[in-house]
Here is the input.
Amino acid sequence: MNEPKKTRGWIDGEHAIIYQRCEQCGHSWYFWRSFCPGCGVSEPECLEASGRGQVYAASMVHRAPSQELRTHVPYLIVIIDADEGFRLMAHGESTLTIGDRVQARFVEFGSRLIPYFEKTDEPG
Ligand SMILES: [Zn+2]
Here is the structure.
């Protein structure tokens, strides 16, 4: 699970959420960078996340941003506080509310594979 990753996870079609962590200051984040936004150290490590976290915010989308996604509306966009300490935006089941514990799985959305969060009873 904590092996350094060379791919970008689901963006490359894999069933994985990749994040970065700085060994120097312990900061972790989601969007790929070549240096730590906390302390500036270069080449932070890339790790695979557990996919577990908590809903920080949730917003229902009623208008599709593209023709391809029109059949999916309405759908829920969530912001997840991952257990590893970073925050990401993703899709989730429509009944999710703020504070719910969630676990990611991966689904086809349009022509892409995306992380999709569902409620879990597992404690944090
Ligand atoms: Zn750092």
The mean pLDDT is 91.
